[in-house]
Amino acid sequence: MVSILFFLAIIPVVVILTYIYLKDRNKEPWSLLIKLFFMGIASCFLVLLASEVVFKIFPFMDKDTAYMTFFETMAYAFIGVALIEEFCKWLMTFAGAYKHKAYDEVYDGIVYSVYVSLGFACLENILYVFMNNSVVVGISRALLAVPGHACDAVFMGYYLSLAKVYATQGKKSLEKKNLVLSVLVPTILHGIYDFCLFSNIDLLLIVFLIFVIAMYIFAIKKIKLLAAQCKNTPQPQQPAQQQYNNVPYNQQQNYNQQGYLNQQNYNQQGYVNQQAQYASAGYITNPNYNNLQQQTSYCPNCGTPMNGNFCSNCGTRQN
User: Fold this and answer.
1) What dihedral angle (degrees, nearest 10) is formed by the CA atoms of 289, 295, 300, 301?
2) Triad 167, 239, 274: Cα angle to 5°
3) Do 149 and 121 touch, CB atoms closer than 8 A?
């Protein structure tokens, strides 16, 4: 019986994590994913501490939902449960992945947030299943609670990635806005889910089923869209300055006259603006663009690579 309950508790977590991982074209480091999963488990304890503080401030949240008023139930669902849990999971995701060097695609935000969220859901599910010692509880949570946590994480990761994109573009206000949305949107979804269950109102149970189905469908579509977007996007092209390095020396002057080393023409061809294009196409940044400024400088007169202020071929001074 124990092995059956344990299997029911962890199998939905394993299935969803595998699905999310396989959808990722450029696989994330296992060391990072394992770390985020265990940070999700650690967030359970952070939730317990935060809940104690909130329940001291709002004592009514510490009683059974059957004895709460309509508005007390709503406050408990949205603040006492949803906000605390989603914020703690968001905090772990942000701390563990937001500035990690592997975070270079929009889909990565979904991967990271789901791994944290299902680390939390894994421990929570094991506790619920064994405390109730019920196969029915295990099956119901496998179909509802665990996928619900994953769906909330999909929206968290999506807005976290938007914030990351705006951060690379220097748009601080839009970055902050999407960081707020990365907490607010999953909190609202989680709150609606819990409120429908806690309220014990028959009509809201019907709303709950419709809401869950719609959320599952929308989350799966979002996963497929972003995963396909990154998969179908061509890798960043080699910048013109790197292409120039492969041109025979006797052709370099003509190559230079075509404008490849002229910064104005180079700008007009869109190489400098590729960063924004790659962000909209699923990439957080264009790595080749980021390294562009580190390329070797070239003589504006004859095109010879310059290691100092003067060209070794024609003596032209670098501007």
Assistant:
1) -130
2) 35
3) yes
